[in-house]
Design brief:
single chain, alpha+beta, Alpha-Beta Plaits, globular, hydrolase, acylphosphatase activity
Length: 90
């Protein structure tokens, strides 16, 4: 299992980015979470089959239609705690 922490920057809040991310992650069978940060970024954690995590990262680089992702920072996080499903955190 591959676990990564992500940070999406750009126009990613107020455009349903978190709900879209949850939907896409569930579609790929991934576990993890996503949340808005005070500075305007969206952060999260993705866990699952390495190929599916890669697919999710590609999807996140584009984001939902109303978003504009300028950067997607990805860091391997093999020891991170991951929930059973995929959560939107507040």
């Amino acid at each position: 299992m591959r676990i990564v922490e992500v940070k999406a920057s750009g126009w990613v809040q107020g455009v349903s980015f978190r709900a879209w991310t949850q939907e896409q992650a569930r579609d790929l069978g991934l576990r993890g979470w996503v949340r808005n940060e005070p500075g305007g970024d969206v952060t999260g954690c993705l866990a699952g089959d390495a190929a599916r995590v890669d697919q999710m990262l590609e999807r996140m680089r584009s984001g939902p239609p109303a978003s504009e992702v300028r950067d997607l920072a990805v860091q391997e996080a093999p020891g991170a705690e991951v929930p059973e499903g995929f959560e939107i955190r507040r």
